User: What shape does this take?
Amino acid sequence: MGIVDERCATCLVRDQALCASLSDDELSALGDIGRTRFLARGQALMWAGGESDVCANLISGVIQMTVATNDGREQIVGLLFPGDFVGQPFAAEASLTFGALTDAQLCVYPRKAFVGILAEHAPLERLLFHRTMAALDEARARMLMLGRRSAGEKVAGFLIELSERLPCRRDLDGVTTFELPLDRAQIADVLGLTIETVSRQITKLKDVGAIATPGRRTIAVRDMGLLLNHADAAHA
Amino acid sequence: MGIVDERCATCLVRDQALCASLSDDELSALGDIGRTRFLARGQALMWAGGESDVCANLISGVIQMTVATNDGREQIVGLLFPGDFVGQPFAAEASLTFGALTDAQLCVYPRKAFVGILAEHAPLERLLFHRTMAALDEARARMLMLGRRSAGEKVAGFLIELSERLPCRRDLDGVTTFELPLDRAQIADVLGLTIETVSRQITKLKDVGAIATPGRRTIAVRDMGLLLNHADAAHA
DNA sequence: CGTCCGCTTGACGATCCTCAAGAGCCGTGG
DNA sequence: CCACGGCTCTTGAGGATCGTCAAGCGGACG
Assistant: This one.
Protein backbone atom coordinates (compact mmCIF):
# COMPACT_ATOMS: atom_id res chain seq x y z
CA MET A 1 0.00 0.00 0.00
CA GLY A 2 1.12 3.49 -0.70
CA ILE A 3 3.69 2.26 -3.12
CA VAL A 4 2.92 2.67 -6.77
CA ASP A 5 2.99 -0.60 -8.57
CA GLU A 6 5.78 -1.01 -11.06
CA ARG A 7 3.27 -1.74 -13.81
CA CYS A 8 1.62 1.60 -13.10
CA ALA A 9 4.88 3.53 -12.96
CA THR A 10 5.78 2.32 -16.43
CA CYS A 11 2.25 2.28 -17.79
CA LEU A 12 1.91 3.61 -21.32
CA VAL A 13 -1.44 5.28 -20.63
CA ARG A 14 -0.70 6.42 -17.10
CA ASP A 15 -1.79 9.98 -17.80
CA GLN A 16 -4.53 9.36 -20.37
CA ALA A 17 -6.51 6.70 -18.54
CA LEU A 18 -8.65 7.21 -15.48
CA CYS A 19 -5.57 6.75 -13.35
CA ALA A 20 -4.53 10.27 -14.26
CA SER A 21 -6.96 11.54 -11.64
CA LEU A 22 -5.33 9.63 -8.83
CA SER A 23 -2.65 10.53 -6.33
CA ASP A 24 0.12 7.99 -5.83
CA ASP A 25 -1.67 6.67 -2.76
CA GLU A 26 -4.93 6.22 -4.57
CA LEU A 27 -3.21 4.73 -7.55
CA SER A 28 -1.78 2.00 -5.43
CA ALA A 29 -5.24 1.16 -4.10
CA LEU A 30 -6.42 0.68 -7.65
CA GLY A 31 -3.25 -1.06 -8.67
CA ASP A 32 -3.76 -3.56 -5.85
CA ILE A 33 -6.96 -4.90 -7.35
CA GLY A 34 -5.86 -4.70 -10.98
CA ARG A 35 -4.07 -7.27 -13.03
CA THR A 36 -2.76 -7.21 -16.55
CA ARG A 37 -4.59 -9.23 -19.13
CA PHE A 38 -3.94 -9.85 -22.79
CA LEU A 39 -6.61 -10.49 -25.38
CA ALA A 40 -5.81 -11.95 -28.77
CA ARG A 41 -7.58 -10.53 -31.80
CA GLY A 42 -11.08 -11.95 -31.83
CA GLN A 43 -11.21 -12.79 -28.14
CA ALA A 44 -13.97 -11.27 -26.02
CA LEU A 45 -13.70 -9.79 -22.55
CA MET A 46 -17.43 -9.98 -21.83
CA TRP A 47 -20.63 -11.04 -23.58
CA ALA A 48 -23.99 -9.32 -23.84
CA GLY A 49 -26.36 -11.15 -21.55
CA GLY A 50 -23.49 -12.60 -19.55
CA GLU A 51 -22.22 -11.51 -16.18
CA SER A 52 -20.60 -8.08 -15.98
CA ASP A 53 -17.80 -9.10 -13.67
CA VAL A 54 -14.91 -6.91 -14.76
CA CYS A 55 -13.96 -3.39 -15.75
CA ALA A 56 -10.67 -2.34 -17.26
CA ASN A 57 -8.42 0.32 -18.65
CA LEU A 58 -7.31 -0.34 -22.19
CA ILE A 59 -3.52 -0.16 -22.43
CA SER A 60 -3.00 -1.02 -26.08
CA GLY A 61 -5.02 -2.30 -29.01
CA VAL A 62 -8.58 -1.61 -30.14
CA ILE A 63 -11.78 -3.04 -28.67
CA GLN A 64 -15.24 -3.09 -30.20
CA MET A 65 -18.56 -2.90 -28.36
CA THR A 66 -21.35 -4.73 -30.14
CA VAL A 67 -25.06 -5.42 -29.71
CA ALA A 68 -27.15 -7.82 -31.76
CA THR A 69 -30.78 -8.52 -32.60
CA ASN A 70 -32.03 -11.89 -31.47
CA ASP A 71 -31.96 -13.11 -35.07
CA GLY A 72 -28.27 -12.41 -35.36
CA ARG A 73 -27.86 -9.02 -37.03
CA GLU A 74 -24.99 -7.19 -35.39
CA GLN A 75 -24.17 -3.53 -34.83
CA ILE A 76 -20.91 -2.17 -33.48
CA VAL A 77 -21.91 0.68 -31.16
CA GLY A 78 -18.47 1.98 -30.35
CA LEU A 79 -14.73 1.48 -30.53
CA LEU A 80 -12.31 1.82 -27.64
CA PHE A 81 -8.71 2.98 -27.97
CA PRO A 82 -5.74 2.98 -25.56
CA GLY A 83 -6.57 5.00 -22.46
CA ASP A 84 -10.30 4.36 -22.74
CA PHE A 85 -12.30 2.78 -19.97
CA VAL A 86 -13.82 -0.63 -20.65
CA GLY A 87 -16.89 -2.16 -19.09
CA GLN A 88 -20.17 -1.48 -17.35
CA PRO A 89 -19.39 -0.90 -13.68
CA PHE A 90 -22.99 -0.52 -12.48
CA ALA A 91 -24.62 -3.33 -14.40
CA ALA A 92 -24.79 -6.85 -12.98
CA GLU A 93 -25.46 -8.16 -16.47
CA ALA A 94 -23.59 -6.89 -19.51
CA SER A 95 -25.69 -5.37 -22.30
CA LEU A 96 -22.76 -5.28 -24.71
CA THR A 97 -20.15 -7.66 -26.01
CA PHE A 98 -16.59 -6.36 -25.69
CA GLY A 99 -14.31 -7.96 -28.24
CA ALA A 100 -10.71 -7.34 -29.27
CA LEU A 101 -10.24 -6.09 -32.83
CA THR A 102 -6.48 -6.36 -32.48
CA ASP A 103 -4.31 -8.01 -29.91
CA ALA A 104 -4.91 -5.93 -26.81
CA GLN A 105 -3.51 -5.34 -23.37
CA LEU A 106 -5.79 -4.39 -20.50
CA CYS A 107 -5.54 -3.51 -16.85
CA VAL A 108 -8.49 -5.46 -15.46
CA TYR A 109 -10.36 -4.90 -12.18
CA PRO A 110 -13.06 -7.02 -10.56
CA ARG A 111 -16.23 -5.00 -11.06
CA LYS A 112 -17.44 -4.87 -7.47
CA ALA A 113 -14.06 -3.99 -6.06
CA PHE A 114 -13.75 -1.29 -8.67
CA VAL A 115 -17.13 0.18 -7.74
CA GLY A 116 -15.97 0.22 -4.13
CA ILE A 117 -12.89 2.21 -5.03
CA LEU A 118 -15.01 4.54 -7.16
CA ALA A 119 -17.19 5.30 -4.14
CA GLU A 120 -14.16 6.12 -2.02
CA HIS A 121 -12.36 8.32 -4.51
CA ALA A 122 -14.46 11.22 -5.69
CA PRO A 123 -11.98 12.51 -8.33
CA LEU A 124 -11.89 9.09 -9.94
CA GLU A 125 -15.66 8.85 -9.94
CA ARG A 126 -15.97 12.35 -11.32
CA LEU A 127 -13.56 11.68 -14.16
CA LEU A 128 -15.39 8.52 -15.15
CA PHE A 129 -18.64 10.48 -14.99
CA HIS A 130 -17.30 13.09 -17.38
CA ARG A 131 -16.07 10.42 -19.73
CA THR A 132 -19.46 8.78 -19.70
CA MET A 133 -20.99 12.09 -20.73
CA ALA A 134 -18.48 12.32 -23.56
CA ALA A 135 -19.36 8.78 -24.59
CA LEU A 136 -23.01 9.82 -24.75
CA ASP A 137 -22.13 12.66 -27.09
CA GLU A 138 -20.21 10.29 -29.29
CA ALA A 139 -23.10 7.83 -29.26
CA ARG A 140 -25.47 10.55 -30.40
CA ALA A 141 -23.21 11.62 -33.22
CA ARG A 142 -23.16 7.99 -34.28
CA MET A 143 -26.95 7.95 -34.30
CA LEU A 144 -27.04 10.86 -36.71
CA MET A 145 -24.57 8.98 -38.85
CA LEU A 146 -26.58 5.74 -38.83
CA GLY A 147 -29.94 7.39 -39.37
CA ARG A 148 -29.26 10.18 -41.80
CA ARG A 149 -26.01 9.72 -43.70
CA SER A 150 -25.52 7.93 -47.00
CA ALA A 151 -23.14 5.02 -47.48
CA GLY A 152 -20.55 7.32 -49.04
CA GLU A 153 -20.68 9.77 -46.19
CA LYS A 154 -20.47 6.99 -43.64
CA VAL A 155 -17.33 5.43 -45.07
CA ALA A 156 -15.53 8.72 -45.66
CA GLY A 157 -16.44 9.97 -42.19
CA PHE A 158 -15.29 6.75 -40.60
CA LEU A 159 -11.91 6.87 -42.28
CA ILE A 160 -11.45 10.43 -41.04
CA GLU A 161 -12.40 9.39 -37.52
CA LEU A 162 -9.87 6.58 -37.60
CA SER A 163 -7.14 8.84 -38.96
CA GLU A 164 -7.67 11.02 -35.90
CA ARG A 165 -7.48 8.29 -33.31
CA LEU A 166 -5.03 5.80 -34.75
CA PRO A 167 -1.27 6.03 -34.95
CA CYS A 168 -0.44 7.45 -38.39
CA ARG A 169 2.63 7.89 -40.55
CA ARG A 170 2.70 11.31 -42.22
CA ASP A 171 4.38 11.34 -45.59
CA LEU A 172 6.48 14.10 -47.17
CA ASP A 173 3.69 15.23 -49.51
CA GLY A 174 1.19 15.30 -46.66
CA VAL A 175 -0.19 11.82 -47.26
CA THR A 176 -1.37 10.21 -44.04
CA THR A 177 -1.18 6.45 -43.78
CA PHE A 178 -2.60 4.10 -41.15
CA GLU A 179 -3.50 0.46 -40.59
CA LEU A 180 -7.15 -0.55 -40.31
CA PRO A 181 -7.80 -2.51 -37.12
CA LEU A 182 -11.06 -3.76 -38.67
CA ASP A 183 -11.79 -5.98 -41.62
CA ARG A 184 -14.54 -5.06 -44.10
CA ALA A 185 -17.23 -6.94 -42.21
CA GLN A 186 -16.47 -5.05 -39.03
CA ILE A 187 -16.45 -1.71 -40.81
CA ALA A 188 -19.85 -2.68 -42.18
CA ASP A 189 -21.06 -3.42 -38.66
CA VAL A 190 -19.88 -0.05 -37.42
CA LEU A 191 -21.60 1.82 -40.23
CA GLY A 192 -24.79 -0.18 -40.50
CA LEU A 193 -23.94 -1.35 -44.03
CA THR A 194 -22.88 -4.55 -45.77
CA ILE A 195 -19.42 -5.74 -46.72
CA GLU A 196 -20.09 -5.16 -50.40
CA THR A 197 -21.32 -1.60 -49.97
CA VAL A 198 -18.29 -0.72 -47.87
CA SER A 199 -16.00 -2.21 -50.49
CA ARG A 200 -17.68 -0.27 -53.29
CA GLN A 201 -17.47 3.02 -51.41
CA ILE A 202 -13.79 2.47 -50.72
CA THR A 203 -13.04 1.84 -54.39
CA LYS A 204 -15.07 4.95 -55.22
CA LEU A 205 -12.90 7.01 -52.87
CA LYS A 206 -9.87 5.46 -54.54
CA ASP A 207 -11.20 6.33 -58.01
CA VAL A 208 -11.66 10.01 -57.18
CA GLY A 209 -8.17 10.13 -55.68
CA ALA A 210 -9.11 10.84 -52.09
CA ILE A 211 -7.35 7.76 -50.77
CA ALA A 212 -5.15 4.88 -51.83
CA THR A 213 -4.99 1.35 -50.47
CA PRO A 214 -1.44 0.02 -50.64
CA GLY A 215 -2.60 -3.07 -48.74
CA ARG A 216 -5.88 -4.72 -47.77
CA ARG A 217 -5.74 -3.12 -44.37
CA THR A 218 -3.79 0.00 -45.17
CA ILE A 219 -5.38 3.36 -45.90
CA ALA A 220 -3.42 6.28 -47.32
CA VAL A 221 -5.26 9.58 -47.28
CA ARG A 222 -4.07 11.40 -50.41
CA ASP A 223 -6.47 14.35 -50.31
CA MET A 224 -8.00 15.10 -46.94
CA GLY A 225 -10.06 17.98 -48.30
CA LEU A 226 -11.73 15.70 -50.82
CA LEU A 227 -12.32 13.11 -48.13
CA LEU A 228 -13.92 15.73 -45.90
CA ASN A 229 -16.21 16.73 -48.75
CA HIS A 230 -17.40 13.18 -49.20
CA ALA A 231 -17.96 12.87 -45.47
CA ASP A 232 -20.28 15.82 -45.35
CA ALA A 233 -21.89 16.55 -48.68
CA ALA A 234 -25.10 14.83 -49.69
CA HIS A 235 -23.77 14.14 -53.19
CA ALA A 236 -20.09 14.52 -53.93
CA MET B 1 -32.56 27.41 3.88
CA GLY B 2 -33.31 24.04 5.35
CA ILE B 3 -36.96 24.45 4.50
CA VAL B 4 -38.27 22.52 1.58
CA ASP B 5 -39.72 24.74 -1.05
CA GLU B 6 -43.46 24.45 -1.51
CA ARG B 7 -42.99 23.66 -5.18
CA CYS B 8 -40.79 20.72 -4.21
CA ALA B 9 -43.16 19.48 -1.52
CA THR B 10 -45.97 19.23 -4.03
CA CYS B 11 -43.81 18.24 -6.98
CA LEU B 12 -45.29 15.56 -9.21
CA VAL B 13 -41.96 13.89 -9.86
CA ARG B 14 -40.48 14.38 -6.40
CA ASP B 15 -39.50 10.75 -6.06
CA GLN B 16 -38.72 9.91 -9.69
CA ALA B 17 -36.45 12.80 -10.52
CA LEU B 18 -32.91 13.33 -9.27
CA CYS B 19 -34.35 15.02 -6.21
CA ALA B 20 -35.27 11.59 -4.85
CA SER B 21 -31.65 11.19 -3.78
CA LEU B 22 -31.71 14.30 -1.61
CA SER B 23 -32.44 14.87 2.03
CA ASP B 24 -34.78 17.73 2.89
CA ASP B 25 -31.78 19.94 3.61
CA GLU B 26 -30.13 19.18 0.31
CA LEU B 27 -33.38 19.53 -1.52
CA SER B 28 -33.77 23.06 -0.31
CA ALA B 29 -30.28 23.90 -1.59
CA LEU B 30 -31.30 22.72 -5.03
CA GLY B 31 -34.73 24.30 -4.75
CA ASP B 32 -33.08 27.63 -4.01
CA ILE B 33 -31.42 27.81 -7.40
CA GLY B 34 -34.30 26.28 -9.36
CA ARG B 35 -37.23 28.02 -10.92
CA THR B 36 -40.24 26.70 -12.74
CA ARG B 37 -40.42 27.20 -16.45
CA PHE B 38 -43.05 26.34 -19.03
CA LEU B 39 -42.35 25.51 -22.64
CA ALA B 40 -45.06 25.54 -25.27
CA ARG B 41 -45.09 22.79 -27.87
CA GLY B 42 -42.40 23.60 -30.39
CA GLN B 43 -40.36 25.85 -28.12
CA ALA B 44 -36.73 24.98 -27.45
CA LEU B 45 -34.85 25.10 -24.18
CA MET B 46 -31.41 25.07 -25.77
CA TRP B 47 -29.85 24.89 -29.23
CA ALA B 48 -27.00 22.78 -30.55
CA GLY B 49 -24.02 25.07 -30.94
CA GLY B 50 -25.47 27.56 -28.50
CA GLU B 51 -24.53 28.15 -24.91
CA SER B 52 -25.32 25.35 -22.46
CA ASP B 53 -26.48 27.59 -19.66
CA VAL B 54 -29.20 25.53 -17.97
CA CYS B 55 -30.06 22.08 -16.71
CA ALA B 56 -33.48 20.94 -15.59
CA ASN B 57 -35.76 18.27 -14.27
CA LEU B 58 -38.70 17.56 -16.51
CA ILE B 59 -41.95 17.79 -14.54
CA SER B 60 -44.49 17.15 -17.27
CA GLY B 61 -44.58 16.84 -21.04
CA VAL B 62 -42.19 15.28 -23.53
CA ILE B 63 -38.91 16.74 -24.80
CA GLN B 64 -36.89 15.71 -27.83
CA MET B 65 -33.12 15.84 -28.22
CA THR B 66 -32.02 16.40 -31.80
CA VAL B 67 -28.83 16.69 -33.81
CA ALA B 68 -28.52 17.75 -37.43
CA THR B 69 -26.09 17.54 -40.33
CA ASN B 70 -24.89 20.88 -41.60
CA ASP B 71 -27.06 20.49 -44.68
CA GLY B 72 -30.19 20.22 -42.58
CA ARG B 73 -30.99 16.54 -42.16
CA GLU B 74 -32.21 15.97 -38.64
CA GLN B 75 -32.09 13.03 -36.27
CA ILE B 76 -33.89 12.77 -32.94
CA VAL B 77 -31.44 11.02 -30.63
CA GLY B 78 -33.66 10.65 -27.61
CA LEU B 79 -36.91 11.50 -25.90
CA LEU B 80 -37.29 12.72 -22.34
CA PHE B 81 -40.30 12.03 -20.12
CA PRO B 82 -41.42 13.39 -16.74
CA GLY B 83 -38.78 12.73 -14.10
CA ASP B 84 -35.94 12.69 -16.62
CA PHE B 85 -32.96 15.00 -16.35
CA VAL B 86 -32.52 17.59 -19.08
CA GLY B 87 -29.32 19.21 -20.26
CA GLN B 88 -25.57 18.87 -20.52
CA PRO B 89 -24.13 19.96 -17.18
CA PHE B 90 -20.45 19.64 -18.11
CA ALA B 91 -20.52 21.18 -21.56
CA ALA B 92 -20.06 24.91 -22.07
CA GLU B 93 -21.58 24.57 -25.51
CA ALA B 94 -24.64 22.42 -26.18
CA SER B 95 -24.23 19.64 -28.73
CA LEU B 96 -27.95 18.94 -28.85
CA THR B 97 -31.13 20.90 -29.34
CA PHE B 98 -33.72 20.33 -26.61
CA GLY B 99 -37.23 21.02 -27.89
CA ALA B 100 -40.68 20.52 -26.41
CA LEU B 101 -42.87 18.00 -28.24
CA THR B 102 -45.81 18.89 -26.04
CA ASP B 103 -46.41 21.72 -23.64
CA ALA B 104 -43.94 21.03 -20.87
CA GLN B 105 -43.13 22.09 -17.35
CA LEU B 106 -39.54 22.11 -16.12
CA CYS B 107 -37.64 22.84 -12.97
CA VAL B 108 -34.69 24.79 -14.37
CA TYR B 109 -31.27 25.39 -12.79
CA PRO B 110 -28.42 27.60 -13.95
CA ARG B 111 -25.82 25.17 -15.22
CA LYS B 112 -22.83 26.36 -13.22
CA ALA B 113 -24.76 26.59 -9.98
CA PHE B 114 -26.08 23.11 -10.60
CA VAL B 115 -22.59 21.74 -11.16
CA GLY B 116 -21.57 23.34 -7.88
CA ILE B 117 -24.34 21.56 -6.02
CA LEU B 118 -23.46 18.33 -7.78
CA ALA B 119 -19.92 18.59 -6.47
CA GLU B 120 -21.14 19.11 -2.91
CA HIS B 121 -23.71 16.35 -2.83
CA ALA B 122 -22.24 12.98 -3.64
CA PRO B 123 -25.55 11.06 -3.67
CA LEU B 124 -26.96 13.48 -6.23
CA GLU B 125 -23.87 13.20 -8.37
CA ARG B 126 -23.93 9.44 -8.11
CA LEU B 127 -27.56 9.19 -9.13
CA LEU B 128 -27.01 11.39 -12.16
CA PHE B 129 -23.98 9.28 -13.02
CA HIS B 130 -26.04 6.11 -12.93
CA ARG B 131 -28.71 7.71 -15.08
CA THR B 132 -26.10 8.75 -17.59
CA MET B 133 -24.98 5.15 -17.82
CA ALA B 134 -28.58 4.10 -18.40
CA ALA B 135 -28.88 6.75 -21.10
CA LEU B 136 -25.80 5.27 -22.78
CA ASP B 137 -27.44 1.85 -22.83
CA GLU B 138 -30.54 3.35 -24.36
CA ALA B 139 -28.47 5.20 -26.94
CA ARG B 140 -26.78 1.97 -27.95
CA ALA B 141 -30.06 0.13 -28.31
CA ARG B 142 -31.15 2.97 -30.56
CA MET B 143 -28.01 2.51 -32.66
CA LEU B 144 -28.88 -1.13 -33.26
CA MET B 145 -32.35 0.00 -34.25
CA LEU B 146 -31.08 2.65 -36.66
CA GLY B 147 -28.39 0.51 -38.22
CA ARG B 148 -29.92 -2.91 -38.45
CA ARG B 149 -33.70 -2.87 -38.25
CA SER B 150 -36.16 -2.58 -41.14
CA ALA B 151 -38.75 0.17 -41.39
CA GLY B 152 -41.47 -2.19 -40.18
CA GLU B 153 -39.48 -3.23 -37.14
CA LYS B 154 -38.62 0.35 -36.33
CA VAL B 155 -42.20 1.60 -36.32
CA ALA B 156 -43.59 -1.38 -34.38
CA GLY B 157 -40.79 -1.17 -31.84
CA PHE B 158 -41.27 2.54 -31.39
CA LEU B 159 -44.98 2.20 -30.72
CA ILE B 160 -44.23 -0.43 -28.09
CA GLU B 161 -41.66 1.81 -26.47
CA LEU B 162 -44.14 4.67 -26.32
CA SER B 163 -46.87 2.44 -24.88
CA GLU B 164 -44.49 1.65 -22.03
CA ARG B 165 -43.58 5.22 -21.19
CA LEU B 166 -46.70 7.20 -21.94
CA PRO B 167 -49.91 7.42 -19.93
CA CYS B 168 -52.30 4.84 -21.42
CA ARG B 169 -55.95 3.97 -21.12
CA ARG B 170 -56.52 0.22 -20.91
CA ASP B 171 -59.74 -0.95 -22.43
CA LEU B 172 -62.02 -3.81 -21.30
CA ASP B 173 -60.85 -6.17 -24.05
CA GLY B 174 -57.21 -5.39 -23.29
CA VAL B 175 -56.82 -2.71 -25.94
CA THR B 176 -54.25 -0.10 -24.88
CA THR B 177 -54.73 3.44 -26.16
CA PHE B 178 -52.42 6.45 -25.98
CA GLU B 179 -51.83 9.83 -27.59
CA LEU B 180 -48.77 10.34 -29.80
CA PRO B 181 -46.72 13.33 -28.64
CA LEU B 182 -45.05 13.38 -32.06
CA ASP B 183 -46.31 14.06 -35.56
CA ARG B 184 -45.28 11.82 -38.45
CA ALA B 185 -42.26 13.93 -39.34
CA GLN B 186 -40.92 13.65 -35.82
CA ILE B 187 -41.48 9.91 -35.71
CA ALA B 188 -39.54 9.74 -38.96
CA ASP B 189 -36.72 11.72 -37.36
CA VAL B 190 -36.59 9.34 -34.41
CA LEU B 191 -36.46 6.27 -36.62
CA GLY B 192 -34.21 7.51 -39.38
CA LEU B 193 -36.98 7.21 -41.99
CA THR B 194 -39.21 9.53 -44.03
CA ILE B 195 -42.76 10.67 -43.30
CA GLU B 196 -44.16 8.54 -46.09
CA THR B 197 -42.46 5.35 -44.98
CA VAL B 198 -43.70 5.85 -41.42
CA SER B 199 -47.22 6.39 -42.70
CA ARG B 200 -47.12 3.29 -44.86
CA GLN B 201 -45.86 1.12 -42.02
CA ILE B 202 -48.59 2.40 -39.73
CA THR B 203 -51.29 1.55 -42.24
CA LYS B 204 -49.69 -1.85 -42.67
CA LEU B 205 -49.94 -2.44 -38.93
CA LYS B 206 -53.56 -1.33 -39.13
CA ASP B 207 -54.26 -3.72 -42.02
CA VAL B 208 -52.96 -6.75 -40.13
CA GLY B 209 -55.02 -5.76 -37.09
CA ALA B 210 -52.17 -5.04 -34.69
CA ILE B 211 -53.28 -1.48 -34.06
CA ALA B 212 -56.06 0.99 -34.84
CA THR B 213 -55.87 4.75 -35.24
CA PRO B 214 -59.06 6.39 -33.98
CA GLY B 215 -57.44 9.80 -34.53
CA ARG B 216 -54.38 11.26 -36.24
CA ARG B 217 -52.45 11.19 -33.04
CA THR B 218 -54.15 8.32 -31.26
CA ILE B 219 -52.81 4.77 -31.27
CA ALA B 220 -54.86 1.82 -30.02
CA VAL B 221 -52.90 -1.40 -29.62
CA ARG B 222 -55.37 -4.17 -30.48
CA ASP B 223 -52.95 -7.10 -30.48
CA MET B 224 -49.74 -6.59 -28.57
CA GLY B 225 -48.43 -10.04 -29.47
CA LEU B 226 -48.70 -9.26 -33.16
CA LEU B 227 -47.06 -5.90 -32.61
CA LEU B 228 -44.19 -7.55 -30.75
CA ASN B 229 -43.74 -9.95 -33.66
CA HIS B 230 -43.42 -7.10 -36.11
CA ALA B 231 -40.94 -5.35 -33.84
CA ASP B 232 -38.60 -8.29 -33.78
CA ALA B 233 -38.99 -10.54 -36.78
CA ALA B 234 -37.12 -9.84 -39.98
CA HIS B 235 -40.23 -10.53 -42.09
CA ALA B 236 -43.60 -10.72 -40.40
C1' DC C 1 2.15 -24.51 -56.66
C1' DG C 2 -2.37 -24.97 -54.94
C1' DT C 3 -5.75 -23.86 -51.47
C1' DC C 4 -7.98 -20.77 -48.43
C1' DC C 5 -9.75 -16.56 -47.04
C1' DG C 6 -10.84 -11.84 -47.48
C1' DC C 7 -11.84 -8.53 -50.78
C1' DT C 8 -13.74 -6.87 -55.09
C1' DT C 9 -16.93 -6.69 -58.85
C1' DG C 10 -21.17 -7.56 -61.28
C1' DA C 11 -26.12 -8.33 -61.98
C1' DC C 12 -30.36 -8.25 -59.94
C1' DG C 13 -33.95 -7.15 -56.68
C1' DA C 14 -36.02 -5.29 -52.44
C1' DT C 15 -36.41 -1.58 -49.61
C1' DC C 16 -36.88 2.91 -48.92
C1' DC C 17 -36.82 7.74 -50.74
C1' DT C 18 -38.64 11.32 -53.94
C1' DC C 19 -42.05 13.63 -56.15
C1' DA C 20 -46.80 14.40 -56.71
C1' DA C 21 -51.49 14.23 -55.94
C1' DG C 22 -55.46 13.35 -53.13
C1' DA C 23 -58.03 12.59 -48.58
C1' DG C 24 -59.31 13.73 -43.95
C1' DC C 25 -59.26 16.86 -40.03
C1' DC C 26 -59.79 21.42 -37.99
C1' DG C 27 -60.07 26.13 -37.22
C1' DT C 28 -61.87 30.33 -39.33
C1' DG C 29 -65.16 33.10 -41.13
C1' DG C 30 -69.16 33.94 -43.46
C1' DC D 1 -74.29 25.71 -39.43
C1' DC D 2 -71.81 25.00 -43.32
C1' DA D 3 -68.22 26.36 -46.63
C1' DC D 4 -63.54 27.29 -47.16
C1' DG D 5 -58.57 27.06 -46.71
C1' DG D 6 -54.65 25.23 -44.57
C1' DC D 7 -52.73 21.55 -42.31
C1' DT D 8 -51.13 16.85 -41.71
C1' DC D 9 -51.47 12.50 -43.19
C1' DT D 10 -52.20 9.00 -46.75
C1' DT D 11 -51.58 6.89 -51.15
C1' DG D 12 -49.52 6.13 -55.56
C1' DA D 13 -45.90 5.79 -59.16
C1' DG D 14 -41.24 5.79 -60.26
C1' DG D 15 -36.47 5.81 -59.19
C1' DA D 16 -32.08 5.73 -56.36
C1' DT D 17 -29.71 3.41 -52.99
C1' DC D 18 -28.29 -0.34 -50.80
C1' DG D 19 -28.71 -5.39 -49.92
C1' DT D 20 -28.47 -10.14 -51.88
C1' DC D 21 -26.56 -13.66 -54.48
C1' DA D 22 -22.87 -15.27 -57.12
C1' DA D 23 -18.62 -15.30 -59.32
C1' DG D 24 -13.82 -13.92 -59.80
C1' DC D 25 -9.45 -11.91 -58.05
C1' DG D 26 -5.33 -11.85 -55.28
C1' DG D 27 -2.46 -12.18 -51.42
C1' DA D 28 -0.95 -15.37 -47.52
C1' DC D 29 0.50 -19.62 -46.25
C1' DG D 30 1.38 -24.23 -46.20
Summary: The first strand of chain B starts at residue 35 and ends at 39. The interface with chain A takes residues 65, 67-71, 73-75, 77-78, 88-91, 95-96, 119, 122, 125-126, 128-130, 132-133, 135-137, 139-144, 146-149, 191-192, 232-234 of chain B (CB under 8 Å). The radius of gyration of chain B is 19 Å.
